[in-house]
Design goal:
Strand order of the largest sheet: 10-9-8-7-11
CATH superfamily of the largest domain: NusG, N-terminal domain
Number of domains: 2
Number of helices: 4
CATH class of the largest domain: Alpha Beta
Distance between the termini: 35 Å
Shape: globular
Strand content: 35-45%
Radius of gyration: 19 Å
Largest sheet: 5 strands, antiparallel
Helix content: 10-25%
Order of helices and strands: EHHEEEEHEHEEEEE
CATH topology of the largest domain: Alpha-Beta Plaits
Length: 172
């Protein structure tokens, strides 16, 4: 099984979210693709706009016309992505897709190396850094792509799920 890498797909302008939805729907319908196409992203950034004297934070596409895919490159995945409505092609010379390097991924906030952790879902952990420092919780969900664990914390008298970076927690 080949290693999954990040690739860039060019789309029609304004079709980024439709392409993302179409690829995710194809993955949902073809279960064998779920193991090969791991993540589809439309990179967004928060921008503060001032309209009529009112500041408003909105999300804008970081790269209009492009979608990022974390996938294993093979004939099946290439064909599925390339023939998705709205996709004009992979970024790379000719028809050969080139994966993004670690240096290209770093400014996007997408971590490429895997971190091994000594806790799993259901384990009690203590937060050792960040806003939730000294909070104790039980891991509800683990996201290895984003390298975060979701725990429930008590906020205003009720349980609230909070995402914490792997680097900020320690197993009890």
């Amino acid at each position: 099984m080949a290693e999954a890498k990040w690739y860039v797909v060019h789309t029609y302008s304004g079709y980024e979210n439709k392409v993302k939805a179409n690829i995710e729907k194809t993955i949902e319908n073809n279960k064998h693709l779920a193991e090969q196409i791991l993540e589809v992203r439309v990179p967004l950034e928060d921008v503060v706009e001032v309209r009529n004297g009112v500041k408003k934070t909105v999300q804008k596409k970081l790269f209009p016309g492009y979608v990022l895919l974390n996938m294993e490159m093979n004939d099946d995945t290439w064909y599925v992505v390339r023939n998705t409505r709205g996709v004009t092609g992979f970024v790379g010379p000719g028809s050969k897709p080139i994966p993004l390097t670690d240096a290209e991924m770093k400014p996007l906030g997408i971590k490429t190396q895997n971190i091994s952790v000594d806790f799993a879902e259901g384990d009690s952990i203590s937060v050792v850094a960040g806003v939730w420092k000294d909070t104790v919780g039980v891991v509800q969900k683990m996201d290895y792509g984003k390298q975060t664990a979701t725990i429930n914390v008590e906020l205003f008298g009720r349980e609230t799920p909070v995402e914490i970076s792997f680097a900020e927690v320690r197993k009890l």
